[in-house]
Structures are given as C-alpha cells and as structure tokens.
Design a protein that fits this description.
Elements (H helix, E strand, L loop, with lengths): L1 E5 L2 E5 L3 E9 L2 E4 L5 E4 L1 H9 L9 E4 L9 E8 L4 E7 L2 H9 L4 E7 L8 E8 L28 H4 L10 E3 L13 H40 L5 H5 L2 H9 L4 E5 L2 E4 H10 L24 H9 L4 H12 L1
Parallel strand pairs: 6-10
Antiparallel strand pairs: 1-2, 3-8, 4-5, 6-7, 7-8, 9-10, 9-11, 12-13
Length: 323
C-alpha cells in the first residue's frame, strides 16, 4: 500500500489501482478529431466490445491522446451495457490514480479503429482529458471499485452483433473536439479540396500552354500572308491577328450549308488564305532595308522575337523545315 498525504487526510491506493466499468463511449453522432462527423449506434458499440482481444491489440491509457512515451495503464475488460461502452482499466502509477481521484482528469475520450485488420471496429486506447473538452458529453465520472450488474456482450442479441459498422475503414477516430495530428488518413473533405485545387491549377496551366501554341501558329500564318502579299499594313492594323486568336478561344461554329459546319477559326483561316495579292504601292516602303541577319526577312525576325528565339535559332529551324 502507498500513502498519499493531503494535509490531515491520508488517501491510500493499492498498486495497481483498478477502475471497473468506466464509461468511455455511448451511442450518438459526434465530431471526430479529424473534423469528420461519426455516427455510432448500439451495433457499432457491441461490435467494439465483441472485438476486444488484448492478445491481438492491448488498448492502453494515455493523457490528451499522447502517442509517445510509456503507457499509463491498460484496458483489461470491455462491455456494452445498452447505454455505455464500459472499460475496466488498471493503472500501475499511484500518482496518476491520486490525480484522477483529485479531479485533474474529469473527462475521457475513446480512440477507435474503425476496421482493425479486417475485423471491424476495435478500441485503440482511452485518453484521460484534463482541460481538453470531450466530444462525448454526459459520461458518468470515473470512480474506483464500481461493480454494477451488467449484461455481458455475449448475452446481447446475435443479429445485432452481426451488423456492419458504418464507418470509414482503416481510420483512427479520435473522439475529441480538438483536432489531432495522428490520423491514418486525411480528412475526406480536405483531401477533396486539395484535389480540386490541383485540378484547377493543371487546367490553368494547360490553357496557358494552349494559348501560347495558338499564338505561335497565328504568328506563322500572319507571316505567310505578308510574304504572299495578301496582308496589307492597313489590314494588319485592323486587328486580324487578334481576331484569329479570339476565334481560337470561342466555341462558335459557322454553318456553311445545311449539312456543313466548321469552327469559326477554320473559316477565317480559309478566307484570309484566299485573299488576293493586293499590296498597294502606297502602303509599300521602297526604301532600302538593311540586310537581314541569317537571311531572315523583317517579318521573320519579328516572328522569332515573338517566339523568344534568336535570329540564328529561327533561321536554323526554317532550314530544317525546308529540307
């Protein structure tokens, strides 16, 4: 026997200290530590009690869901009495038992595996809560030497024991109002939001690349029109290049006949390609132009600049295309 002094009183605790039939959970809908709403009915609590197997997994005792350090105690029994899931808890630390009796840990929280090794829900641990509020309200206090007459889990209806738990598998549910950091899976809502954000980013990047490719193709087409004498400076200043780019980005179609439709861009491309050679002498500058580097015309140098290429790089690309 160990003695713990409180002024004039002496409280004695045997080692180990046993707490029988401690209420740790009850049927209801609760907010789990990862933000997910969890519904636990009688069927789920019966299954948790039925799956209690210390030889396979020994549920332990901790403070505030702490996952490191030594276990402060262990669960030696588990049952559901129709109202609460109750645990028998053995504590080997005399000082911890004294703090419980003093009221330092007025609440508790159950940690539940929703599917342990394919066997269904099982108790993972019991956490003593001090300042942290529990998600499951209304649990009776944790007292030593409680021995009410309770029906065993095996005495409950067999068809209820066979009910499947309606929980997300392979996820540890920490029944506390404070989010925990040791969930096995991310919160589904947060995971979906991250996936949507990534999809939006990829879509924006795809649109940017597609627009850049269209700008390059239109710049090449405009150069071909100039070289063929079909594009006058006045037509170019009217905004033909911007019109072609806008046509690329619109879903509009042109109905050429009852059974023939085509995208607006293809129609404009075909119309401008059919323009006659019509460069006006008044629009042509006959002043001698300086020799173009690498044999490139002024228009070709403009295209190279738009593509971010040097004159030499663009000339090499043109030579490769002509081979």
């Amino acid at each position: 026997m160990d003695d713990v002094n409180h002024g004039e009183h002496c409280v004695c605790f045997p080692v180990p200290a046993d707490y029988s039939n401690v209420a740790i959970l009850k049927p209801g809908v609760f907010n789990a530590g990862n933000g997910v709403t969890v519904a636990l009915g009688e069927a789920e609590l019966l299954r948790i009690a039925d799956n209690f197997d210390p030889a396979h997994l020994l549920p332990t005792l901790n403070i505030d869901h702490e996952d490191s350090g030594p276990a402060l105690g262990r669960v030696t029994g588990l049952r559901f009495d129709g109202e609460f899931l109750r645990a028998d808890i053995r504590i080997a630390d005399t000082q911890l038992a004294e703090r419980i009796e003093r009221g330092d840990f007025p609440s508790r929280s159950a940690e539940i595996y929703t599917d342990l090794d394919g066997q269904g829900p099982a108790l993972r641990a019991v956490a003593l809560l001090g300042a942290m509020p529990p998600a499951v309200k209304g649990l009776p206090p944790m007292l030593r030497d409680q021995h009410p007459s309770l029906p065993a889990a095996e005495a409950m209806q067999p068809n209820v024991l066979a009910a499947a738990p309606q929980l997300q598998p392979f996820c540890v549910t920490l029944l506390s109002e404070v989010p925990m950091g040791n969930e096995l899976q991310p919160e589904p809502a947060r995971e979906a939001a991250l996936l949507a954000e990534e999809n939006q980013r990829l879509a924006e990047e795809n649109r940017r690349l597609l627009r850049h490719e269209r700008q390059r193709e239109i710049a090449v087409f405009m150069s071909e029109l100039r070289n063929a004498g079909r594009l006058t400076p006045a037509l170019e200043q009217a905004g033909i290049e911007q019109l072609l780019l806008a046509a690329c980005e619109t879903p509009l179609v042109v109905r050429l006949s009852e059974d023939n439709e085509e995208p607006l861009f293809e129609t404009l491309h075909r119309v401008f390609s059919a323009l006659p050679v019509c460069v006006s002498f008044g629009e042509t500058d006959f002043r001698a132009a300086p020799p173009a580097p690498c044999g490139l015309s002024e228009d070709e140098r403009t295209i190279a600049a738009q593509l971010g290429l040097s004159a030499e790089e663009y000339a090499e690309i043109r030579r490769t295309e002509l081979r």
